[in-house]
Amino acid sequence: MPYLIELLLFLLPFAAYGLWRRMNPRAEPSSILLVLAALGIVLMLGGAFWYGLSRSMRPGTEYVPAHMEGDHIAPGHGESRE
User: Fold this and answer.
1) Is the pLDDT of residue 57 over 90?
2) What angle do CA 29, 30, 33 make, to 5 degrees?
């Protein structure tokens, strides 16, 4: 069920655009709307790039997954390979 909701949320903007095109077949999107859409795409890609760089581990680091230590769970982390 959650996948269906996620799929519907993903398809909602495309459906809204299709409905807008159907209701206004001769109208074109304004240039300011296209500039804002392009700016949104650039900001999204820049944010994804920044997040990927800030969350990555240094070269030579090995990921240690979460595991049980006694009666509590130790979170996953990176350790140097030495």
Assistant:
1) no
2) 90
